[in-house]
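Need tokens for this chain, all 266 residues.
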Amino acid sequence: MTSQIPSPPGVPLLGNISDIDPQNSMASLCHLADIYGPIFKLSLVGKDRYFIANHELLNEICDETRFQKSLSGPLWQLRNGIHDGLFTAETREHNWEVAHRLLMPAFGPLSIRSMFDEMHDIASQLVMRWARYGPENRIDVTDDFTRLTLDSIALCAMDTRFNSYYKDHLHPFIEAMVGFLSESGQRSSRPALQSYFMRAAQQQYDRNINVLHTVAAKVVAGRREHPSDKKDLLNAMLNGRDPKTGEGLTDESISNNMITFLIAGE
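Here are the structure tokens for all 266 residues:
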């Protein structure tokens, strides 16, 4: 027996847009879940969006035989820079299928556990930084947690140190990534024609994408020049083979997925 998915009352044309606080959308969605239950629908400027709020429904929609992901909004715009990486590929794109099967073992519990020492290394840098500030100084928690996340992923996944806690400015890769993500989000909410005329923004967007791939290519070249037996994601991508087809990842796919892992952290 089916039942109608609950939804808060909306207003003409705008629907439920006033139910979401743009400054704290997650709190708004949690509040709506408390009222309407683990699944509810919002109409946002003519488009229906469905939200789930418990583990049982999450497990259900992760059933790949019944559901597939939908690329839209900022996620679609990210394809401008990372193409068919794991997060931005469409369900049946070949490179996604190869990378998905090849990398699954690298995300198992034992593989993650082997990264704990490196996570502790970066977390210790954060704690030491805060301890040395003293009680009179303000701490920019958001900035420091960004450094924590990206430094941890870079070290654990590809044995690369951004050393963000030893510099006043973020690593150029991180600055380019933040700019890339910001512009991708903005492009998704404005007409394509408007983006066409924003030449300065487009040029900066292209420069940011170029920095991301230049750094990724340098990391790959460094590992090939100085191989190691470390069981990290970079070696898995360089040396692994798809158990179904026997294929390895192309250099382009390796670059796209290295950037994807760091974006996921951000």
